[in-house]
Protein: LacI family transcriptional regulator
Organism: Fulvivirga kasyanovii
Amino acid sequence: MKSNQITIKDIARELDISPSTVSRALKDHPDISPKTKKQVRELAEKLNYQPNSIALSLRSSKSNTIGVVIPQVVHFFFSTIISGIEDIAYAAGYSVMVAQSNESYDREVMDTKALFNNRVDGILVSMSRETTDYAHLEFLHNRGIPMVFYDRVCDSIDCSKVVVDDFDGGYRATKHLIEQGYKRIAHLAGPHSLHMFRQRLDGYKKALQEHGLPIDESLILPENASDDENVAKELTERLLNLDERPDAIFANNDIAALGAMITIKEHGLKVPSDIGIVGFSNWRFTALTEPTITTVAQPGFEMGQEAARLLIEAIEAKDDEVITSVTKVLKTELVVRGSSVK
């Protein structure tokens, strides 16, 4: 018999006692003799008996499982977030169930339904690029499922959120380029539906305004260049074909920055002497390119930890305890490398 099929009845049959006696022995019930407890525990260990987690959860109304909806598992930033979530969750006695939307709204809806049907105790959510309808998330919230948003958040739902200071990140990236002497700075923007990308764009504009540089809408390409190197290449082609091309590009993420760099080199231009580049996220490859890419680092591991702490606090709150929604804003760090220093 396989170890994962061992049940209380199997132990009872081996020891010629009742299943209820086995159950009470495993729970250290005072009515069971020390000798019987010892026999039951030794056999349970020998047979690799594991309690039925589903049955336990049905009795306790708690699964000790946290659901995580993530846009892309392969994304370096999101993989560090998962590590942070697991660090806190496992230490608190929770398992983690990860569902990847793969940047699809339909997949995100299916993922949230699947997690709900699997009776997770709470859900951590980072929305897909396509998500503009929040009915599936409102359903969870209205059903009283503890929920915390991280990175890509929904402002219309009253629950805790963990984000980075995207405005400051965009501001500092653009300010750095200005301080290096660049004056015609383009921005490869992310989807406007996501708050984080709007914040990065606002930070970019603020830096230009503070330094007396005009906001040229022809240099802001709002199409979704997020995590798509080919789209970033196409957008960079458009920028380079302008009558007055940009002398720097602030990309909404590192994949877009890489796509821009490749296209610039294909045109026989040099980075950073002809065009400077700054990305966002600090993917590992940014330290390996030639030149290396200046970027804005995000504290992914810390974000995951903070989101998990907030969710577990909500899960474990007493029925009469009021949990106040909070928004945790984590600082970014500008990592200056070769692509932006003249």
In short: The longest helix spans residues 76-91. Residues 116 and 139 are 10 Å apart (CA to CA).
